[in-house]
Amino acid sequence: MLAAKLLAAVAVVGVQAAVCPYKDYPSGWIIVADGNCSSSLTTCATTNTCDRTATKTYPAISSFSGWMGVGNLADYTYTNLTLKDTPSLTIARMSLPNTVTTLTFDNVTKIDLANTALTQWSSVKTLMVLNSPVNFPNVGVVWPTNLDLVVLSNNAMNNIPQYLPTTLTQLAIQSNYLTDLVYLPKKLVFLNIAANNFKTLVNADLRSVKYLYMSNNEDLTKISAVQFSDIAFVKMLNCSKLSDIYLDATSYTALNKLQPWNGDDETDTPAGYTINYPVASNAAACTAAGGSIQKLWESTSKVSVTACVTGGSGTMTRSVVATGVSFSTTRQCDNDRATDAGWQQYVVLATTTTNHVV
Known about the structure:
signal; single chain; 21 strands; LRR_dom_sf
């Protein structure tokens, strides 16, 4: 009789382990809000064996520190979820309810983004990865289908992740180590590239961008063949080394029509330009490139800004791009606010010491 009971117990444990969806998760606590919890509408911790005897119930909160994995959160009631302060986070079997629209990872060293084929997070419209040196794989990421805004701030990133979802209209990738705009999504309306390591900005199609934040790029010396069309706001403070701007005629006209920004950080639709260092584009180099020197914002700017303007509206040749200087890793904060519907609440500029609303 005793032997039969032992065999039955072993069989139950075996079935439990076999059906646990988190069996491939590493050891450690997994946050869930499902049948593993003692009651509905609660958040609790479980393990990769789904052992109910090991579960711990947590109060109704939306920010969690130190977790190793995320599981089924069907009974989670908040619209935002923050996971932070952990060396590694597994989300392969994460399942979010339709109510969760904002997901934040803060100070997370590793996330298994390449294993998201079964991740259920289609409700997420805003994804923020802050203060996290996460590796974004080039293949294997199944992004949320409704993702619109991605914030990648202070992550020591050297390049824009390849294959970001085509649904994006807003990207904030400030306070990193970017040196170019390769892999920039094509349909962006809002772009924040403040406080990076650009030496030059070259051959970038920003014709869809309405709101551009590019302050505190201290080593930026040249802007060339960057196209604008529908630009409504540009902030380029503290770009002290910027000495040359090359624009096609259409892009020059789009920028030159802007009026000085009124400094209103609360508006949902900022308009105008702000710049605080002069730019004196090289006249001889401009002539050699087939362009002519034109003043930007001649009657309104407090500092003199000249650009080399070419007659066409196509992409300029690389011959006008001079070799830049070496770049530093100095970080400064652009205390801007990203202000179009939904941006002001989520788009943050994070540094290692402080967070700033963009």
